[in-house]
Protein 1
Amino acid sequence: MSSRKIVKVGDPVLRQQAKPVTVINKKIKRLLDDMAETMYQARGVGLAAPQVGVSKRIIVVDVGEGLWELINPEIIFREGEEVDLEGCLSIPGVTGEVMRASRVRVRGLNRNGQQQVITAEGFGARAFQHEIDHLDGILFIDKALRIIKQE
Ligand code: ZN
């Protein structure tokens, strides 16, 4: 495992539509390992592959309840809405108030190609929505009701 460089806002890779993964090979597994390492080292709760410069539909999320690795994730159900603060490892020094669904169900593949269905609420639901947005080139600052810049 090794930590990779986190791409910052302004880099075009963050605005691309990421490509679905068709084959889960060694390279993809290595990427998953590196993404988790990079996320933990940066003390983030989620990371999407475009944030390490790879335009593929892969995310990792850990909101303190264990690591989720998801390949080709999609939100298959959402309900409720809530506004809360969020930030992004690719946009240092900025937080914003963003409206998100309060509960989501997410489907995707694990590294063994098995389908996973995860139901998440609150902060966990927020993390999945934020990371999946990255795969469509969407950043939280696009959706924020209010942006807060830290000194
Ligand atoms: Zn982000």
Note: Residues 12-149 form a domain with the Peptide Deformylase fold (CATH 3.90.45.10).
Protein 2
Amino acid sequence: MTKQVLILPGDGIGPEITAEAVKVLNALNASDGLDIEMTEDLVGGAAYDAHGLPLSDETMAKAQAADAILLGAVGGYKWESLDISVRPEKGLLRLRSEMKLFANLRPAFLYPQLADASTLKPEVVAGLDILIVRELTGGIYFGQPRGIRVLDNGERQGFNTYVYSESEIRRIAHVAFKAAMKRDKKLTSVDKANVLEVTELWREVVDLVAVEYPEVEVKHMYVDNAAMQLILNPKQFDVMVTGNMFGDILSDEASMLTGSIGMLASASLDENNKGMYEPSHGSAPDIAGKDLANPLATILSAAMMLRYTLGREELAVKIENAVSKVLDQGLRTGDIYSEGMTKVGCREMGDAVVAAL
Ligand code: NAD
């Protein structure tokens, strides 16, 4: 049956990079029987300009009805002074929370051809292949109560609540163990169990879930040590699982080991593996509309969509191999350019991937 994919290009470079991913998906529709139908809609600042909201109810309904969503990026200077309730990012948060996308998968994979792009020594990062599984709809970013209150002495006090229930920990742990089973069967769970009770429970529940995956080797690590180990010896990691805030920080750190934000894909999944796929980077307003953006993170996000939601692993691999091939050919957008390579724009890079398919 034809699968429905909603394309939400968003703002800044969003429309340019999603156009290249759509080209790749169209090519697979034509040559490999991918059989998806794509419709496009507005999110972020573009939606605010059209409807006064960063995500209209109609678009939300289309997202709920679609099999998968491919998103570019949202935000930009133009909308920075808007009230926080209608800022472009709110469109993204609404999609994540109403679709219950609790599992965020962010691979930090370094293509060997780009080992020089990292700020770390090539021998430390060559062959790097980490998958960070971050809980996305709970933890301190959502915990209640929260706010800023005035104390009896007139001083203001800010407060947030770090909370996880057993069921929230259990479901994200299952996602991480299943991912580890498909990879090197090594899982590192990151917490701060020496200080925070909520992560003491996290550790206990991860150990309980581990019993169901006896083949997976489990390690627990405090978040401060994990941040250090990612720089010291990142290749020790296969899959890492952690809560919302630690995952936010560690996944950005891990992505920078690869030195190239324009290469990094991500997936946010619900209980049934329905998902939203987007590059890890933002809308890059500084280079928007100039045909300078690297579309590979979005194209690789489309590959993740084929793998996790649309059940077409062989086509996901086909896209990933095509990306590797264009890198072998020496084609580079500005963000991953090094001397001796051929500099190309966003469109030319997309065309090269289609040709390499
Ligand atoms: P950014 O990721 O947009 O850009 C950081 C730097 O990386 C910029 O120099 C940019 O030119 C470069 N860059 C990013 N993606 C690139 C690509 N594909 N190819 C080449 N270069 C690329 O982060 P920022 O500058 O902090 O934020 C810009 C806007 O994006 C803000 O409005 C922010 O709120 C928004 N943002 C959105 C998302 C999202 O949609 N998921 C994520 C992060 C930031």
Note: The first strand starts at residue 3 and ends at 10.
